[in-house]
Design goal:
Blueprint: E1 2-12, H1 13-31, H2 34-41, H3 46-63, E2 77-81, E3 87-91, H4 93-102, E4 106-114, E5 117-126
Antiparallel strand pairs: 1-5, 2-3, 4-5
Amino acid sequence: MRIVGHGVDIVVVSRVERLRERHGDVFMERVFTPAERAYCDSARGRAERLAGRFAAKEAVFKVLGSGWRGSMQWTDVETLPDALGKPVITLHGESARRAAEMGIARVLISLSHAGGYAVASALGVSDT
């Protein structure tokens, strides 16, 4: 396994909550996949969960060397928990194409939130 890229992002939870309140479904549907929205709505801590996923998307875009721009969509990066609750990244669309082009087999993610902030650290790794 080889590290191909690393990205970190930190988000103020209240900022994401304000965006959600101001732009409603337009913001939610543009940024989060249906599965992410369902997960974040399923338990307490909705604002923290949304902010963590927002930070994860930004961190993954940094792994891909682009930041958010061009033909990549926010919903190209999906963060959902596995059976044990560990966050897992699934790439779609242009983000998946870019990762393959870079030799990235998978993206590992770590999320945390405390004190009104959410942080994500992402590693793009190859299998070689």
